[in-house]
Amino acid sequence: MKTAVRIVAVLVGAGLAAYGIDGLIGATSTHSLTSAAKWFVGGALAHDLLIAPVVVLLGELLARLLPGGVRPYAQAGLFITAALTLVALPFLSGKGYHASNPSALALNYGRGYGIAVAVVWALVVAVGLVRAHHRARKANQ
Q1: 46/88 Cα distance (integer angstroms)
Q2: What are the tens digits of pLDDT across the range 53-102?
Q3: What are all long-range contacts of 100-109, with beta carbons under 8 Å and residues at least 24 apart?
Q4: Which run of H or of E encompasses 75?
Q5: Euclidean distance between the first and final Cα of the chain, in Å?
Q6: Which among 121, 54, 115 is positioned nearest to 88, based on CA atoms?
Q7: CA-to-CA distance for 123 and 118, rounded, in angstroms?
Q8: CA 1 to CA 8: how far, in whole Å?
């Protein structure tokens, strides 16, 4: 059963990737292709040169400072925060805003990013506390 699900997931993913590549290549202007290539390469470089090393260093720091029971939750929160940061960076930087089009980047993305990160860490703390409580109850039995 697991193999069948994996095969279906790979086929669906490959189909969606092919659809996206076809749409990208079928773009009418070379500007679209150049812009997409910049975002693709820039995102990979931002991840590999900035976000991943920071996450690894913070993960190592967490591994040394936190007790083993809550460590995985804190590290998961760190990974999720890094992913959120990568997705939010274009919006937080304000690139793409033009005074002639006030509807572009019209929201307070900094506040939204802050709320999303706060929710992630609130859930990390809640799950860590619940797991610690369950572990303590199990130890007392």
Answers
A1: 12
A2: 987 888 788 888 888 777 888 888 988 998 898 888 887 877 766 667 76
A3: none
A4: helix 71-93
A5: 38
A6: 115
A7: 9
A8: 11
* φ and ψ at residue 101, rounded to 5 degrees: -130, 85
Q: How far is CA 113 from CA 83, 92, 120, in A?
A: 11, 8, 11
Report the alpha-carbon distance of residue 33 to residue 40 in Å, rounded: 10
Which residue, chain included where needed, has tokens 């260093």? 57
**CA pair distance 122, 125, nearest whole angstrom:** 5
Q: How many CA atoms lie within 13 Å of 65's alpha carbon, on the beta-carbon side?
A: 8
Check: CB of residue 89 under 8 Å from CB of residue 42. Answer: no
Q: How far apart are CA 120 and CA 115, in angstroms?
A: 9
CA neighbor of 97 nearest in space, from 105, 109, 88: 105
The model scores a pTM over 0.85? no
- For the cut 70, the answer to whether the pLDDT of residue 28 exceeds it is no
C-alpha angle 89-92-96 in degrees, rounded to nearest 5: 95
Q: Could you tell me which residues are beta bridge partners of residue 101?
A: 98
